[in-house]
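ENCODED BACKBONE
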Amino acid sequence: MDENEIESYNEDNPDFEDEENARSAEKRQQDEALTTTPPKKGKKSISKPKIFKDEWLADSTFMGWLKKVHGKPHKAVCSACDVELAAGKSELQKHAEGKLHKKKAESLKANKSLTEMFSQAQTAQREAAKHSERVKVAEIQMAAFFADNNVAFRTSTQLVGVQKKVFKDSKIVQDMTLGPDKCNAIVRNVIAKVETEELAEDLRNTYFSTMVDESTDQGAEKNLIIVVKFLSPRAPGKDKPRVTILELARLDSTNCSAEALWNAYDKVLEKHRIPHDNCIGLSCDGAAVMVGRHNSFWSRLKERCPWAILMPCTCHSAAKVSSIACSKLPSHVEQHLRMLSTYLGGSPKRSAELRQFQEEYEEELKKMLKPAATRWLVLQPCVERYLLLRKQRSLQGFFELRCFEDPDRKDKDAHEILAQLKNPFTGAYMEFLSYVLNVMNEFNAMFQSKSTLIHKVYERSHALMKTLCLNFMKEDCMDKLGDINVTHPHFLLPLEEVELGLGCNEALSKITPHPDTPETRQALARDITAFRQKCLHFYTTAAKEIQCRLPLKDEILRQASFLDPAVFLQPRSEPGALKDINGLIMHYKDKLNLDVNATVLEWRKVPHTIPQRMHEKLKAMPMEDAWDEIRALKSGDDKPMFGNLVKLANLVMVLPHANADAERGFSIVTDVKTKKRNRMGAECLNSICVARSSFRSKGIDCVSFEVTPKHLSKHNKDMYNRE
């Protein structure tokens, strides 16, 4: 179509004119927009979403069915209808007015009441269980008080009654019931049983030494006490030996043979499933039935435990040395002590009269002590007290008056005592005993300690022997004290040079002949010579007994001194140093699975491997604490620096050095089973002794004792059962 045709078409088309007009109007509007400011458009109102408010949950209209939607603050949930709603209060109110919602909300309320009731019942049940547990704890704690303080169980009813009267606002106290039978049952089958079970579990997994002794209690019943010493694995980082009673076993009083003692011991270990293999040492008194080479308790233990060592009680041994040596002195010396103490202590009237003499002379009021037949440590204090009273004018004045008022000599004891008080040699013997028993008793008292002293036994035994021998032997003859003939004249000092003590020498120097004639002077010289010979006989007897009874030649105990930090750190090349511990290593290599060469190497490198700055620190620490530090030392690969030596030290540390802990155990028996409680049964006696001993070994008492779930699990009707 050409241009003329298009123009003719547009003119003939009726819509063309309208389109042209529209384009013209649009163009005019654009031109006006360029020259005029357009009017502002009006803002449309947009509603913001509402946020859920926690306060609506407490509104009575919404309570019970309205729930918050976590993560969607603009939403809410109706738990009755199980629908999600917009979090607007007006919307929620409209939903609450709906008939369907009201119906479902009523149903939900009914169901919730049942749930709440069930929940409340469960809560009440839990609270009741907690309260019952608190009551049990209180009863166990009270029973621990009775056992720990040796209070008779029959007083428990009255004590709880007083507590209920005083503490009326305590529901625990009001619900407590603790009669004698229940208190007995708790001590037997709750407290003591848990202590024994824990102890037996420890002994199954570690090495221990045992101390045994037998004795008769207040009810004339024979008991075998079994005390164990071990490193408790329940105290990590505190590897210190613990000593406690395993059991107090009842014996047949008509048969206390070695076989009977062993059977009682074996039965206890079997009952608690403790392997004999874990026993590494035995300490007991020196009775043949206990330590005899054949057919003894020790011979049977040695068959089961070949690596175990026997450690006769050093305290018993030292006491026996004193006893046998004293028997070489005139018998009237010790008899005089006993007679004087009995004469004064057996009569209140005589004691009062002696007190009047002491007041008259303005002297210190002192009583005479009585020596015990089986307690040789008491002999020295008795001698010391006698010497103090002998120096007072009141004592001799008292007996002079008694004898003056008894011309017919009816009171023979008073005349005998006065004769001995006037005998200067009796006083000299007492001074000698005061000097020499002091040496023996220091040794005895040291090894009655509760500390670990196995590393001191060899050294102190040699020190005791040398101290004693220096009084009567030449110093250059004491190289081998374990083998030397202490009675050979070649080794002895001249009689007049034998050391008797300053007090004894002074007493002898004051003895004068009466009357002063050549004959009386010769007689006095003979008496003094005889006196010195008696004292020398005392010395030689004591020295021979020490050679027999104390470990002067025991290599195991000599090498056990490596536990001492000073010995452990001393350079091996120094004079007097402990060169090696090969005997210990070879004795226990199989038991401890030791690498022999590695252990020897560790021993040799100790002095120069441990930093020098630590040497003085370790030497100043107690032995157990020092070994805690040594255990913590690590090598470059974070392994123990002295792993083999530490294993050996842990074992040697639990070897017994004396039987004093068994004696202390019997002290508990004596304290518990008194004249008023002499009908106490064996099971009850054993339980109290085990509990008290265990508390002491842990360093706790009935206050610091903690009731554990194990105790609570055993507090039930079965605790009344008896074995």
In short: Residues 465 and 543 are 7 Å apart (CA to CA).
